[in-house]
Amino acid sequence: MRKLLYLRLIFLFLFLLSFTYLFSGEGPFRYNTHSYSSLIPPDLLIEDSWYGIYFQDTFIGYSHYFMRVRDMEEGGGYVLKNSTNLKMPLLGRLESLNMETEAILGSNYSLKEGKFKLDSRNYFFDAALKKKKANIYSLTIKTPSQSVTKEITRNEEIINPLFSPISLNYIPLKKKIFYTFYDPVLNRKTKVLLQNMGRMDIELDGQTLESYKVEMDVEGINGVIFVDNHGRLLKEEFLGFTFVKEDTKKLFSHEYFTAGKDFITYFSLPSIVLPDKEKLKYLKVKIDGIPEDYIKEDFNQKFKLIDNSFIVEINRKKPENIKSLPLARGEFAKYLKEGEFIKFDTPLIRDTVNSIVGREKNPLIIIEKISGWMDENIEKVPSITLPNTLDVLELKQGDCGELSALMAGFLRSLGIPAYVNIGIVHNEGRFFYHAWVSAFIGEWIDTDPALNQLIADPTHIKLLTGLENQFELFKIISRIKVEVMDYK
Fold it and tell me: How much is the pTM?
């Protein structure tokens, strides 16, 4: 049984560190682009640095940053590249993840072109953004099942902050500087706060180096960055990861290993063992460390705020008001539309669903049939993707996010309202980040295709709705605490 929503969180975090860094609409010097460039001597843009990446002191990969000046035949400006290769310990095995980022900048550091590529198992994600004119950009995204091109309009000039570490030592001492990074794929902004805390000696490769310590806050997630006297990145610590500048001889002598390390355990929450949890009808928990907009009341989940803690109660019951297809559409129209992740308006989806469901009109039996088909035909494996229904059907593999995207797309294609929940679920004495589906069959039910539960057990605690909101969980990962108060 795999609860691997956190894998997508890791993917989105790395996505933020690479592709989204190509598109910053608001920086500390956004009022004057040239003032930003005047802080960075041109020779500092000639850079070739390698970094070891560690997770809880375990070596998991490396990152290579390369920067150079473009000659006049190329059109001038600058090229910035980054290559990151990871092997992450998951369930006793190493899962590979490779990312490539490239940015072409004008002489004033404005973005002309940006590319991002991710490869993980059989999945790939390619994105390319190119400036067409003024504030209009063309964005093309390719995945295993599709290629989509759209236009993006940015009212403010886009600045590439991949080289931000080069200028970190120019941040005035004790002053706070804000950046806003724009993600064109998810159409969201992420605010980052940086504060120069002054000089500090650090140990690196047995040497004591003088550095500047810069504290970082990414929407409530704290990290720290160390740069040398020229502003070059020496070390970064963020969310359990450490990036350390190393020479290639040492870097490629590291061995990967998994003993005692696992992302699943690290990003889960300790709890008590719940006997026969799949037979439970009721769960009551106390949750601390989250704001009010990070938990929702729903048909089977209620909460009260008492002394800054959320007292959450979840009930599980068998549905009693099942209606036959077709179901009324007006009231739940938003749960019947296509979106970035939920796709269904293709012959492949319709033909596949029809072959599974046949002439069945009972929506609960339909869900059971789809769950059975998915259990037999979709390999449940750790997956690092931006999941959509078409890609999952094409690759026939995935974990909770992929299976939820597939289930929601299948159900919506039949006129059954459905949406994806983002939250936590209990297993073997811990709560894990997870995704599952709510569907309307005459009344709402929770169903979990990843755990093969037709009616999800009451340890499914809903925090957010929609796969597009997965990154939001990063803001609470280091703060959330869950205590089981009662169950039956």
Answer: 0.87
Can you tell me the distance from the alpha carbon of 340 to that of 387, in angstroms, rounded to the nearest whole number?
9
Task: Provide the 8-state DSSP code for 289.
Answer: S
Query: For domain 268-487, which CATH number applies: 3.30.413.10, 3.10.620.30, 3.30.420.40, 3.30.1240.10?
Result: 3.10.620.30
pLDDT tens for residues 187-237?
Answer: 777 777 888 898 999 998 889 999 989 898 887 788 898 888 777 788 988
Q: What is the pLDDT of residues 434-488, one digit of tens each?
A: 999 999 999 999 999 999 999 999 999 999 999 888 778 877 887 899 999 999 9
Sign of the four-CA dihedral 205, 206, 210, 212: positive
- Omega within 30 of 0 (cis) for the link into 417: no
- Copy the structure tokens of residue 180: 């806003």
Count of other CB atoms within 10 angstroms of residue 415: 14
**Regarding beta strands 397-398 and 188-204, do their DSSP bridges make them parallel or antiparallel, or are they unpaired?**
unpaired
Instruction: Say which residue the tokens 């078409």 belong to.
Output: 390
Q: What share of the chain is helix, strand, coil (3-state, %, to 5)?
A: 25, 45, 35
